[in-house]
Amino acid sequence: MASDRSGCVIAVDVGGTAVKAAVVDRHGTAIARLSVPTSRDGADGVVEQLGLIADELTHAAHARLMTPVGLGVVVPGRIDEAAGVVALAGNLGWRDVPLRALAEKRTGLPVTLGHDVRAGGLAEFTLGSSRGAGDHLFLAIGTGVAGAIMLGGEPYDRGGYAGEIGHVVIEPDGVECGCGGRGCLETMASAGAIARRYAERSGAPVTAAEVAARAAAGEATAAAVWHEAVDVLVIALAGYAFALAPELIVIGGGLAGAGEQLLAPLRDRLADRLGFQRMPTVVGAELGELAGCLGAGLLAWRAAGREVRP
Amino acid sequence: MASDRSGCVIAVDVGGTAVKAAVVDRHGTAIARLSVPTSRDGADGVVEQLGLIADELTHAAHARLMTPVGLGVVVPGRIDEAAGVVALAGNLGWRDVPLRALAEKRTGLPVTLGHDVRAGGLAEFTLGSSRGAGDHLFLAIGTGVAGAIMLGGEPYDRGGYAGEIGHVVIEPDGVECGCGGRGCLETMASAGAIARRYAERSGAPVTAAEVAARAAAGEATAAAVWHEAVDVLVIALAGYAFALAPELIVIGGGLAGAGEQLLAPLRDRLADRLGFQRMPTVVGAELGELAGCLGAGLLAWRAAGREVRP
Fold it and tell me: For an interface test with A, which of B184, B230, B276 has the most A Cβ atoms less than 10 Å from its Cβ?
């Protein structure tokens, strides 16, 4: 008796290591959640996972007297949202995967494809730290670094090419990057880069979060690596702020877990760099690692003809 | 008999060294032109110049059976176009000058105030090199470096703060910049910086155009300075292209006079840097040093309720 049920959507964030999924209601709340390791069997494996996830979360929705009206999926990389195609997803090893069509065939639901960070930016704008903000930047710093350039309340897209702020050049002759360039922001200030740079100097293979903890505890090597990472983030964000003058910068992704240990020096040094330029407000994201998944839910709701009102 | 006359606007580009003005017709053509050295008597002096220019060009218009319907003025710096105020113009030494009101009082014409480079970008889009282009960048490289970020056919403004691409940080510990920062693009790749850097190494106080000529003639020091300037432009433009993925970059300002000597290596090295990112088309501006003035004319026409159709 579907007519007695309220609608919901199924939202899925396909990451390089985990697939996070949730039932998202009309207010943007994640009702039922699950997370599984990303299939190692390529796009086919992930499409099969999407099918199993849709089945399981549909049952979870029915148990709450809700019926899924659509599926939103977000993926990192270069996503052609209009075409529903993952053009290039480096850390999934995908190229030109028509994920929307494949997922619709497997699940029987209308599917919307999006980009994980742009969707995350939209989620923060609709439900989180940047509600009601004017033009701003959502920068996700995790394994990689990518941005959602929020203009007029929407992520700026350019066919999936916009927002690759992780590849702003910091050291022209620096470390080689997956993009083919050298010395990109991502090679110096991503969570992965912070862990690698610390390991190179200390010999200790620890996570970026552990580097942050050791820096906070006063360990000199960790503090130096952390300081350098903040410095290069400041250079990249200053360039962005001189060009686009955002009113707000939201820092998300795993590294944002460091909170004020990251944000306070970032604000101070950014203000120094900006000189005559207007200093944006700099805050941490509110939705944490659920941002991309909630963003997928917002895209699915939009495709179903309804905007989420929190 | 004004009713027999066709309309025109008076367009003025107030630069640090010269004030360029023209009568601009409904098709965006500059009919009568004049140029005078910028008054050294501050904003009052420039307002008086605007009055004299308006008088002279009104006579020139009448002689062609045209009547000015408005005055467009563009100025470098941070311009609050909505308020009609020059908030900060470093190379004019102005701060918080209500130029629109002052010019209206002096000339009796409706006045529109704009930013020289944003107006130049609009002129290139309407009349020049970027006619009909999608989202793109107009970068003016002259005494300083500034950009018009063209989104949806309009310069992105942010209350006058957007487009300060000259202050993207290239060398964090580099030469001090007028903005208060260090190692900005403008300190390394503006026409002024190229002349200065060449003089520092050669002892010869020549213009950037002369440095270009000497580089083309094979002089090693000039070639090295030129090469370095292109390299830092590439770093800044790559960062812009990774973030905003423009379909086109138009290079204007005095340095664009070097033509392919600038553009060819810029294209080659930018393509190298961009890796997986889409490479924009890179062209020189078409309107030359008249871009700002024509842009001022477009703004004045728009304020008069008519868009220019070339």
Answer: B276
Among the partner-chain residues B162, B245, B276, the one whose CB lies closest to the CB of A158 is: B245
Domain positions in chain B:
2-120+289-303, 132-285
Which of A168, A244, A276 comes nearest B242 by C-beta?
A: A168
Tokens for A7, please give them: 């609608």
Classify residue A27 by burial, with Cβ atoms within 10 Å: 0-12, 13-18, 19+.
Answer: exposed
The CATH number of the structural domain formed by B132-285 is 3.30.420.40
Collapsed DSSP state (helix, strand, coil) of residue B30: strand
pTM above 0.90, yes or no: yes
Is the Cβ–Cβ distance between B68 and B11 less than 8 Å?
no
Q: Is B180 on the interface with A (CB under 8 A)?
A: yes
Amino acid at A26: R
Task: Please tell me if the domain spanning B2-120+289-303 has the same topology as the one spanning B132-285.
Answer: yes
Q: What is the pLDDT along chain A (310 residues), one digit of tens a residue?
A: 444 468 999 999 999 889 999 999 999 999 999 999 999 999 999 999 999 999 999 999 999 999 999 999 999 999 999 999 999 998 899 999 999 999 999 999 999 999 999 999 999 999 999 999 999 999 999 989 999 999 999 999 999 999 999 999 999 999 999 888 899 999 999 999 999 999 999 999 999 999 999 999 999 999 999 999 999 999 999 999 999 999 999 999 999 999 999 999 999 999 999 988 999 999 999 999 999 999 999 999 999 999 888 8
Length of chain B: 310
Q: Report strand pairing: B66-75 vs B30-37.
A: unpaired
Q: What's the order of all strands across the beta sheet hosting A66-75?
A: A30-37, A18-24, A6-14, A66-75, A111-115
Asked if B189 and B204 touch (Cβ cutoff 8 Å), the reply is no
Q: Which of B135, B157, B244 to mutate to test the interface with A (most CBs of A within 10 A)?
A: B244
CA distance A258 to chain B (A): 25
CATH architecture assigned to A131-285: 2-Layer Sandwich (3.30)
Class of B2-120+289-303 in CATH: alpha beta
By CB neighbour count within 10 A (0-12 exposed, 13-18 middle, 19+ buried), where does A96 fall? Answer: exposed
CB atoms within 10 A of CB A135: 19
